[in-house]
Amino acid sequence: MANPIPFQEYRWTSRDGLSLYARTYSPPGGEQGLPVICLHGLTRNSKDFEDIAPVIAGWGRRVIAADVRGRGQSDRDPNPDHYQPKIYARDVVEMMKALGIDRAVFIGTSMGGIITMMMMAVKPKAVAAAILNDTGPMIAPEGIARILTYAGQPVTIGDWSDAAGYVRKTNAVAFAHYGDEDWHRFAQRTFRQGENGPELDYDPAIKGVISKPVPKLALWLTGLLFRRLARKRPTLLVRGGMSDLITADIASKMQRMAPKMRRVDVPGIGHAPMLTEPEAVDAVQQFLRTVP
Predict the structure, then answer these.
(1) What single-letter DSSP state applies at residue 291?
(2) Is the N-terminal amide bond of 272 cis, ω within 30° of 0?
(3) With b meaning 16 or more CB within 10 Å and e meaning fewer, what string describes 127-155?
(4) Coil vs helix vs strand at 27
(5) What domain range includes position 108?
(6) 150 in a domain, yes or no?
(7) Angle at Cα 77 formed by Cα 76 and Cα 80, nearest 5°?
(8) 120-140, pLDDT tens digit by residue?
(9) What is the C-alpha to C-alpha distance for residues 257 and 154, in angstroms, rounded to an integer?
(10) In whole angstroms, what is the distance from residue 68 CA to residue 61 CA?
């Protein structure tokens, strides 16, 4: 996928003093719609959107892809208890204020979708529409169990070939069609160059939230926020056809909870689509044509 539109780096400071980072992509022909804010998954970062963000910018929207605290070029939090959706959503609100954005369309992959739902509690007027990428108010336990086998676990990586082998091992179930070049690019998005070789581009302490049992009250609240989002805002669910987090049954339950929600299943992909798949690109484009 072509990447003709460069990004600019942007930093802002959270209310608790962390330096946080985002990439911003400006539409070459001027803005023709509300900005799009892209939020990544648990162990990921803004680099996951490096292909789709320029495409969306080319459609006439400013795109902001943030590194959530503890990931990528954003500071790591000295207090791991702050690695939770409410704090992340608060950071997004502060980023929007710093950038002069009142409302935006949100694209949230996995954890990023949970942050998007949390925005409906923190600042609902900021959310004009939402694309939930393989995420929802309920998640299959087998998917969580798989993620916990590697998220935050220590790993020894000698060089970039080892890094590519690591991401192949941990993600082949989702991208069975990937070749060597694909895994090399995936490694570049997952690791950063450290003093002794590639190192994972996130704070291992982020795993704390998902490693604990979810209280029933939290599940109820997430369901409430999802209904508030998907019933009151245009919402699209992009689901990996082989996803072990958002199973077909869970996606159907989500549609019953929010009958107006749109849905596209990306065949041959697990958790989570990169949004560069033709089915995903078409669905995102058609959706954005219908929202402010």
Answers:
(1) -
(2) yes
(3) bbbbbbbbbbbbbbeebeebbeebbbeeb
(4) coil
(5) 8-140+214-288
(6) no
(7) 120
(8) 999 999 999 999 999 999 999
(9) 39
(10) 21
Q: Which amino acid is at 64?
A: I
Residue 115 located in a structural domain: yes
205 belongs to a structural domain: no
Confidence of residue 1 (pLDDT cuts 50, 70, 90): low
CATH number at residue 125: 3.40.50.1820
Structure tokens at 15: 């209310």
Q: Which helix (H) or strand (E) holds 279?
A: helix 278-288
Q: What's the rounded Cα separation, in Å, for the pair 2 and 179?
A: 19
Q: Which residue type occupies 186?
A: F
* pLDDT tens track for 170-224: 999 999 999 999 999 999 999 999 998 999 999 999 987 766 666 666 777 899 9
Give me the amino acid identity at 242.
M
Q: How confident is the model at residue 61 (pLDDT cuts 50, 70, 90)?
A: very high
C-alpha–C-alpha distance, residues 114 and 148, integer Å: 18
In sequence order, what are the beta bridge partners of 66? 22, 39
Q: At what angle do helices 111-122 and 216-232 cross, to 10 degrees?
A: 80
Determine the Cα–Cα distance for residues 285 and 270; give it in Å rounded to an integer. 21
Q: Which of 118, 111, 168 minimizes the C-alpha distance to 143?
A: 111
